[in-house]
């Protein structure tokens, strides 16, 4: 997507966005925290690692790309932490790779796909795949007027009523924080956010995408029940492979639906 608002008045930007919504979607960027989560989709679409990555040589970010039908598909993962060798999960790496991907690839659409914890009190079950209606933070507590709203940072996802109806997908709100577990303070904030699922990246991706006005879809598959009776980390590891397969089954259907369509048709 070209120059997201640079040099344009508000009216001109709105007109440009209207024109883009009527143009067929060409370039999609998937932001995925863990390459293990991304691998089924990489394999499905026959994507290859970009050896001439547009990203700085100092970072561990990994880009896979290729053509599927009429779509230029890109998957970006933050890669491994240089010191510990583990996946770079969390809001900071997600924000950085989203910003860099928008600058380098100029996508028409971003899809943040990944796993999440779900709340049985909100109807979530292991393996459910949700399209997120809105995303907010639950661990940025700033008890000062107006700054409290900034801390929550609620943002609506790009509306996709036709996609949701056609594919019969579940819809729920997402709450994002930098911890896998849930403290009493987090629980209170998550409840206030009316969240069905919680993760460690989604609201950060939505924040950066909103700055540049890039339409964004958040897809989250439930690996663990946060308000259940089992340790989150144990349940996450046990279900990761099977739930990732379900996530990318749904993601493939989403891509097939998007192919040949404009943003306004989603």
* CATH architecture classification: 3-Layer(aba) Sandwich
Please bin the fraction of helical residues.
25-40%
Number of strands: 10
CATH class: Alpha Beta
GO molecular function: methylthioadenosine nucleosidase activity
Pfam family, one: PNP_UDP_1
Protein name: Nucleoside phosphorylase domain-containing protein
Organism: Eutrema salsugineum (Saltwater cress)
Give a structural overview.
- The protein has a single domain (24-261), classed as Rossmann fold.
- The two termini are 17 Å apart.
- The protein has helices at 10-21, 35-44, 91-105, 147-152, 161-167, 184-192, 202-211, 232-258, and strands at residues 27-31, 48-49, 62-68, 71-77, 109-118, 129-137, 155-156, 170-176, 197-199, 216-225.
- With 266 residues, it is an alpha/beta fold.
- The chain is built from eight helices and ten strands.
């Amino acid at each position: 997507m070209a120059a997201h608002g640079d040099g344009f008045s508000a009216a001109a930007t709105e007109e440009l966005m209207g024109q883009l919504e009527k143009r067929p979607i060409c370039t999609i960027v998937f932001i995925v925290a863990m390459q293990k989560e991304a691998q089924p989709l990489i394999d499905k679409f026959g994507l290859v690692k970009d050896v001439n990555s547009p990203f700085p040589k100092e970072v561990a970010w990994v880009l896979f790309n290729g053509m599927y039908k009429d779509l230029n598909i890109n998957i970006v993962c933050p890669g491994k932490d240089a010191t510990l060798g583990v996946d770079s999960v969390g809001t900071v790496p997600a924000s950085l790779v989203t910003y860099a991907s928008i600058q380098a690839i100029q996508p028409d659409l971003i899809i943040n796909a990944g796993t999440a914890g779900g709340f049985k009190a909100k109807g979530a079950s292991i393996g459910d795949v949700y399209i997120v209606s809105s995303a907010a933070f639950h661990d940025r507590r700033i008890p000062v007027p107006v700054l409290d709203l900034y801390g929550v940072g609620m943002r609506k996802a790009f509306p996709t009523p036709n996609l949701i109806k056609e594919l019969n997908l579940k819809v729920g709100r997402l709450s994002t924080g930098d911890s896998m577990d849930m403290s009493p303070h987090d629980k209170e904030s998550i409840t206030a956010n009316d969240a069905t699922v919680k993760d460690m990246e989604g609201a950060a991706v939505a924040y950066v995408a909103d700055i540049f006005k890039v339409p964004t879809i958040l897809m989250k598959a439930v690996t663990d029940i946060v308000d259940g009776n089992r340790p989150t980390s144990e349940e996450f590891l046990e279900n990761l492979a099977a739930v990732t397969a379900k996530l990318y089954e749904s993601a493939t259907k989403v891509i097939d639906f998007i192919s040949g369509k404009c943003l306004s048709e989603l």
